[in-house]
Each structure stands twice: as structure tokens, then as C-alpha cells.
Amino acid sequence: MARCIRMLLLSCLMTLLLTSCWSSQEIENLALYSGLALDVGEPAPIEKEFEAKGATYPKQNKVMATVQIVPVKTIGTNSQKQQDQKKPYINISGSGDSILEIFRQFSIRLDQPIIGHHLKVIVVSAELLKQQPIGNVMDFLLRDNDIRPSTMVFVSQGSAKATMESNIASEVPSFHIMGMLRNRSRTSKVLKPVTLSRLDSLIYSERSFMLQNLVTGGEEVELSGAGIIKGSSGKWIGTLNQTDTQCLAWIRNEGTAGTIKVNEGNNNVITYELEDMKSKVTPKVDGDDISFHVELSTEGRIIEVWNDQAPSSSHLNEEEVSQLIKKQLKDMTEESIRKLQKKYQTDVAGFGNRLAIKYPSVWRKVKDRWDEVFSDSEVTFSYELQITDFGSFIED
Amino acid sequence: MSTMIEYIPDWSTWGMAGIALLVPILGHLLYQKVYHFIGTGTHLHDAAPTTPSEPSSEAGNTFSGNYDKDLCYIQDKLGANSDVCFREFTLHQLGVRGTLLYVDGMQNDRLLQLKIMTFLMYEATAEKLASPSTDEAGLPFLQLQEASNLDGFNHAILFGHFGLLIEGMPIGLLIEQPDARNRPILEPLSEALLRGPRVGFTEILSENTSMLRRQGMSDQLEITSYRVGTRMQRDLVLAYMKDLVNPDLLKEVQTRIERMDMDFFAESGYVEQLIEDNYLSPFQQVQNTERPDRVINALMEGRVAILLDGTPFALIVPATFSMLLQSPEDYYERWLPSSLLRIMRFGAAFLALMAPALYISFISFHPGLIPTELAISIIETRQGVPFPSLIEVLILEVAIEILREAGIRLPKPIGPAMGIVGGLIIGDAAVQAGIVSPFLVIVVAVTAISSFSIPTYSAGITLRMLRFIGMVFAAVLGIFGTILFFLLLCSHLSKLKSFGVPYLTPITPFRMRDWKDLFFRAPLSLMKRRPAMMKTQQNKRKS
């Protein structure tokens, strides 16, 4: 009996040894992808070669996904690695109908499984968003457990794949794009990033929203303006330029810094640096009429003055200058709102939110056709500008 | 009804639940079986293997009164020992013969020896010798005992007493305690402090107890003595504050001491292992220390100290987990830095235990939990490493443990050089050779340094040992295994007791009052009461 129990216990212990390392995968045997670009479906050049030899599967090429894998595998220890200055990333593209299927297709091309824990940046091309609603394109990325909800989403004018290229050695473009967002402290042309978790709620509530727009040129990337996604259809309908983006960020009370430049006369430039910018949107409901009043207030300094007549800034009249800036500001904001209301007929500046907070009952009535209602409502502005100083200069 | 049946889980779920139920029960049974198989190490049935403190008085040969016969008997018993000296002389006042017996090297005061000889040979009179221990006419010796039988006399001589045998007297006299050479009192080697007394215990018990006495004047410090060991006996004392110590605790300690059954106690570690509650536990339930100030602080909290002759390590019971990470310096320095250091020590203990396990689980199981930049640099550095992370960590950890073990045994001048050779050269060479990644070298180094910051050496060994178990858990189940390992440790610790005091007090059972001296060391003005866990007779520390 005791012998029997001993054997049983021993065999129980032996099974522990058999388990070895469950589901263990060493980190160096995994391929982390830090960036993902989604383009209109079209076989990538390498894929075309494969397909010519019959290496293909049934698909309609609805979308092309490009993943950026870091770091590149090297042989030997790090001392040898420094000698060849190759790019620290690999981009691999594949086209197909489902993003997961494309990812699994990568598994028959790569020697390591790709994992999405470290995905930082998703760039979707505007062309693709014209054809497909954003909800379809992002569906897998929102469902997948590995991909973090903090992943940032961008839209690109032109090819999204191109934003994942860089000509600077030892730089990973997806990290570069993510790093560019740090400059929000310098200019409000950089929007508050839309993360996957925010995108999820935006798609679900069918609200229109902006995604930061990426423009490429000469293997460099610029954050320029914003792409507008229409809530009802989930498709891309157009781009706002940089000035509009700055104004809308201010109205949404998300801006922190920036500049306003006034061209006065023929060669006189006055630049105002925004040190503090605030906005207060007050909805007004009068029967069926909905209108908004936006109070924009700012504090800042005059930091650059080009003047033909007087070299010194001491002659500047504070009152005069602030009138000039206010006028410029008025032009900018009104142009932006006009564009939203007339050209795109969408509310991406958060007016709907304000209304929902202040007049929930009114909001419930209009929320299904809010974009149209917003286009007809009146938006008025008031500006408050305080010039704190004119920088340092020599008194003459 | 059918909807209810729908919700009853299927057989595989029941099976898993059954296994989940059986595993702890089987584990417990196995534990009990092992415990039963090895036995407790103490003799529960045999109540009195130890003898009380007086020299053994079992029936032996009594003195016959015949000088030659007695001397012959003694010579017969002890004469084979080359270090026993027999000095025969004549007492001139009386004209009788006498013999002084002693072990060479146990009585070192030459002047004293000379005086004794002079007294005995020329001054000793019949009256004085007739009643040696009475006050007025007694012999002028500080220490004087009469041995009632010959075997006891022999024992005492071998232990270092001067023995005196005089013709015509039916007793043997024992004069002067053994006075063997002792090393000087040094700073304790295993528990060095920057601020605090620089004395450590020595190997001589009487010196150690005197050190405790010298800590302060109190008539409540009671030191009771025992003889332990069945073949070679040794002195052992219990020290406690009479008006503080919980009587139940004292009784428990006394019972356990009396029950010890071992032919010889070479070091207080023997005592520790024979009186501890659970010898299967990796944690020590008795604290050992070389510092008299630590002992006296423990006594003032109502604990009991056990000192054994022949070792500088005193034992403090009961021990709790928090004591292992406390240093006497915590109380000597001001409370803010002390609290900070103590919290740091808790952090270091956690690192010493878990850092390699966490490394393995992050590297092999959860790459998503590492910050991206770090993940990339780890991947880059691990490119050439041919082993899975467990093997990699084991290689370096075992190397470090070997180095530490070797470092203890090395002569003092070579020690640091060896540390440099081992730490720097082997670490760097292993990275260069691509056996381990540089990141791991950092992890292992941090682990090693953390384990050095634990003030009690024995507690450090425990954590070093458990670290390897943690690594295996991590290698099998990742972070899940690491947490499982931690939970197992916690459940074991919460069950463990030291002399009836739960090991994890005051965390569990929760005693808010004792938290003032756990992670933080509250200002002394707030320490108005003794620890609640000790259940002392007098609670207040301040009048």
C-alpha cells in the first residue's frame, strides 16, 4: 500500500517535469512591430513576384497592411553590429481582405512570430478611408488583446506605407512619429492624439472626429492639419489645413501654445506667441434655434517684429497691436468654422459635447442629425487678448 | 428545471475543480508524512535527559578518607591524560601530604598559583582545613567547593578547576574556576554597525552574561543556567527580564530546552534546530545574534535569550519576520532616516527574492510588459545568447553563489581581489562570449547587492535559497508562476509560528499598535508601549 502511494506521488512529481516551460517564448525569438500602415489594397512588389509563381491564396485585395518590425536581427555580439549602419527596422507589406489573415500570411514569410504588444502608431491612408468605413478597417485592431489601447491613430495624405520610411540611419519612423507628438507643448498644430480606446468610443457613438494628418515628402514626415472622418458613414471626407487645426484645437480647449503672425503693410511682420490659451463654449437654445458663443482668451507676448521704419519695438502701441492680432484671430477662426459648417458639414470642434452637457434634453432630440443641425446653427466669437510683454530690447 | 441543468458545468470543469481541491489536501498530507517520518528531534517521552545546573551528583565513588587510595583512584582514572598535572607537596604546618591537581592551560594566573602553593605549604592549619567553607576560619579562596564524590571531583578537574586532595580529609576541594585564555572582545563580524556599541559576544559564557549585566543596572534581569548535552555537557543560560517576560512563553522555552536530546552541542545552531517549531520551513524561527545590545533590546521587548557556552552567537526567541530585516541601528539613528533605510531594506529583500524570477517571466513570457525601448535593447543584446532565459540566469546566479561561498573561505587579503576577478571579469567575459546578456548581469548584480543589505546573515541565506525556487516557478508559468510562488510563501509564512507567536505579526494577525515599528520606525516619543504580540506583563515603556 505504502509502496503504491509512493509510486503515485512519484509519478505526480514526474508530470511536473514534463510540463517544462508552458507557452514560454524568448523575447529575442519574437518580432515586435512598432508601426502599422494600412493602405488601399494592391499587391506589394514582392507579393507580385510571389503571385507570378503561383504563391497565392483566394483574396480580393481590399487592404494592404505594412508592419514595421524592430529591431533587425543581427548575427554576433554588439561589437560587430556597430560597423554596418543599416536601417534598424524592416517594413513588410502584404495585401488581402482581412488584417488578421494578412498577419498570419506574414508568418509564412518571416522566421519569427510577430507580436503586437509594442504597437505604437497606426497610420491609415485617406484613400483607404474613402473606400472603407474606419470601423471596418480598425475592427481587428480594436478587438485584439495584444495591441494596447494607447496606440495612436493617424491618417495619411497619400501612401501610409511611405510614412514608415525614413532616410535617417538609426531612426525608427514609428518612434519618430510618436515623438513628434511631444511638440504639443510648442504648437497647437499638433492635435491631442487619438488613441485606440478613444477611437473605439468615437466609432461606436458615430460622432465625426479629426485624426492628425501625416504628409510625406523626401522620406520625411510632417504633421499637417487633420483628416475629418464623418461619423455617419465612418469615411474620410476631407482635410483641414494647419491654421484650421490650430483654431479648432483652441476651441476644443486642447491647445497649449502656438503663434499668431500678422502681416501688416508690405513688409511688417508681427508675431505673437501664445503662452496661454483658453476657450469657453456656451450653447444657447431658443426654441429650435441652437447657437453657440465661443469666448477665446489668450495671454502672450510679442516676440518678433519686422519693421521698416523703426527698428525698436518700443514704439509699438499695445492697443494697436492687440487690435491687429484680434483681427487676424477673427479671420482665422471664422474661416475655420465656415469650412466646418459649409464645406464639410460636420462638427469636429466639440460643440455637440457642450450642448449635451448643458441641454441634455435638446441634445437627445438632435443628436442623430447633429452634423446637419450644427451646420445651420450660429457661432459667434469674442476674443480677449492680453499682451504680457514685448520681449527684451534696448530702450533708446 | 431544464434551464437550471443547463447551467451545471460539464465533467471537465468538475474534474478541474476536484484537482484544485485535491492538490492542497495531498500537499498537506505529504507534508505531515514527511514531518512524521523525520520526527521532531526532541524526546517527548523522555522528560529529563538534561541535568540541573549543579555539578552532577550521581552516585559515584565517595571519598574513602584514605589519601593513598583516593589518589590512586584518581590517578587511575585521569593519569592517562598527559595534560593533567599532579603536584604533590607537604603541608609543613601539619606535616601531612597533599596533592594539587589541575589541567595544564586552564589556570593561567601564575601569581595566583604561587600564592596558593605558598599558603598551602606554609600557612594552612588544621582548623582552617577542618571546615573549609565556613566564613571565619575558612580557606582564603574566592571560589571554593567541596566535591562529595571522586567522579564529580574528576569531572571538575578536567573542566579546569584546581583540585586539592589532602591526607586525612575525606573530601576533595575545588578551588578557583577555570580560567582558560580568551580572545579579546571584538566588533561582531557578522553584524557590523556604523553607530552603536562595538562589542560582540565571545566564546566564554560567563563573559557573555557579564556583558548582558553590564548593559544596565537592573535586578529584574534574570539569568538561569542549564547543563545540556548527554555525553559532553555544556552550560546554557536563559536570560529574560523577570517582570516583563510572559510566563507562558518562559515556560515553553524552558520545556523545550529541557527536552533537547543531543550528545553534544557544538554551537547554538544545534539548540536553534532542536527547539524550533517547524524544521521544514525555509525561514528561521529563532534569531541569532552576536550583539549584546540586540539581545538586551529583545529582552526589553519581553523576549527570551538563550546563550550557550563556547559560541559567540546568542539566540533570541520568539523571532518574527520583521526582526530579520531590522537592524539595531534603526533605533540609534533618528527616526526619519531609519524608517527610510528600513523600507529600503524591505525593497531590497523583495528584489533579492524575486528579481531573477521577474526577469525570466518578463523575458520568456510577457514581452509586452517591458517598455518598448527597453524591450528593443534587450532583444538586441540577447541576439547571440544561445540559452533560454532560465538557463542563462542559472549560469550566472550559480556562478555568483559559488563566488560568495568561495569568498567566505578565502584569506582576508585575497577576498576583495577575488570579488573583482569573479564579479567583473567573469561577468564581462560571459557577456563578451555571448553566454549571457548584459542586461542579466545588471539583474544578477542588483540581486546580489540587495541580498547583502539584509542585516541578518541567516535570513539572507533563506532568500538566496528561495530565489532559485522562484526562478523555476517563473520558468514554468511566467508571471503567473511568480505570483503563485509569492502566494505560496505568504501562505506558509502566515501559518508559521515561533514559540506560539505568529511569524507575520503584526501584519497577520493584524495588530495596529505594532505597525509603528514595522516598515516605519516611529519616533521614540511615540513608542510608549511594548509590542502587543509579546503579551508582556508590563505594557508601558514609559512611566
The tally of structural domains of chain A comes to 2
Number of strands of chain A: 14
Please tell me what the overall shape of chain A is: elongated
Separation, N- and C-terminal Cα atoms of chain B: 72 Å
N-end to C-end Cα span of chain A: 109 Å
Q: Output the number of helix runs of chain B.
A: 18
**What is the chain-wise order of helices and strands of chain B?**
HHHEEHHEHEEHEEHHEHEEHHHHHHHHEE
Number of domains of chain B: 3
Arithmetic mean pLDDT of chain A: 88
**Global shape of chain B:** elongated
Taking all Cα atoms into account, the compactness measure Rg of chain A is 27 Å
Class computed from helices, strands and strand pairing of chain B: alpha+beta
Number of strands of chain B: 12
Strand order of the largest sheet of chain B: 1-2-4-5-3
N-to-C series of helices and strands of chain A: HEHEHEHEEHHEHEHEEEHEEEHHHHE
Low-pLDDT parts of chain A are: none
Described by its quaternary structure, the protein is: heterodimer
Please describe what this structure looks like.
The complex is a heterodimer of chains A (396) and B (543). With 396 residues, chain A is of the alpha/beta class. Chain A has 13 helices and 14 strands. Chain A has 2 domains: 28-74 and 85-240, no CATH class; 241-396, Nutrient germinant receptor protein C, domain 3 (GMP Synthetase, Chain A, domain 3), CATH 3.30.300. In chain A, strands 1, 2, 3, 4, 5, 6, 7, 8, 9 and 10 form a 10-stranded mixed β-sheet that branches. In chain A, a hairpin with a 2-residue loop joins strand 12 (268-286) and strand 13 (289-306). In chain A, helix 6 crosses helix 8, helix 9 (242-251) crosses helix 10 (318-344) and helix 11 packs across helix 12 (360-366). Chain A starts with a helix and ends in a 7-residue tail after the last strand. Chain B folds into 3 domains: 67-175, no CATH class; 205-319, no CATH class; 332-502, no CATH class. Helices cover 47% and strands 11% of the residues of chain B. Chain B is built from 18 helices and 12 strands. Chain B has a 5-stranded antiparallel β-sheet, with helices on both faces. In chain B, a hairpin with a 5-residue loop joins strand 4 (162-166) and strand 5 (172-175). In chain B, helix 13 runs antiparallel to helix 17. The chains are: A alpha/beta (396), B alpha+beta (543). Chain A binds chain B through residues 9, 12, 16, 19-28, 30, 32, 34, 70-71, 73-78, 81, 115, 117-118, 120, 146, 148, 175, and chain B through 26, 30, 362-365, 367-370, 372, 375-376, 378-385, 388-390, 431-432, 434, 475-478.
